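[job 4471] stage=fold_predict status=RUNNING
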Amino acid sequence: MSDTGARTFEELIAEAEAASVDGWDFSWLDGRATEERPDWGYARLLADRLSGATAALDLQTGGGEVLAEALAAGRARPSLTVATESWPPNVARATALLHPLGVALVADPDEPPLPFADGAFDLVVSRHPVRAWWDEIARVLRPGGTYLSQEVGPASVFELVEYFLGPMPPEIRSGRDPERAAKEAEAAGLDVVDLRTAALRTEFRDIGAVVYFLRKVIWMVPGFTVGRYRDRLLELHRRIAADGPFVATTTRFLIEAVKPA
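[job 4471] inference complete, writing structure tokens
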């Protein structure tokens, strides 16, 4: 655990600003922030689905860490595994991590159309996609194929978002609704066979953890910089020092859909 209690605001901020935010590994936050995990265990489910697949596609893989973990844990690997990613630092990181595992990494803008043939995969997966393009997912799935995804749910960590940006309008708070996702999947011709939701406790134990998180998850507070929000950060630093961790609620949903045979 990091000993952050006696460190100054400036020290914590400087450390968080200097930390690399490439990839999708949050280990820098160990001891500084905590987040409950959904009880369904996405990595475990992914390993199981990969073990039964012949051709798999991981959309928006980030740094490839979750896919690499699932491949290592699975009983068997697909004959073909492909991953896509759009952000150049993550493309480089995922390539270095996944190529030794036999995974082909495709740099793709994460917008339609996907650069793959119709029915190319019997498994398509994605963890925390920015957006699920359901028509394209259905197109590249083979009949009988499966799509498995864990997504960020509505108003996730909005206690932190609204601390910096103020109250969000209802249409923003209700975005990323799991029921809406299920309807969009069905409209694309898929059968939703599993839909689960979770509300999870998240704690930020020092201001450096807040800065690191907002630098890494850039869509939470668009345009975030320490300079722009220094006064709010200092106020939050003092609040954490006086009252303990800043608590927020993370929301997630799991969706699994099958293309009819």
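[job 4471] summary: The two ends are 51 Å apart (CA to CA).
[job 4471] exit 0
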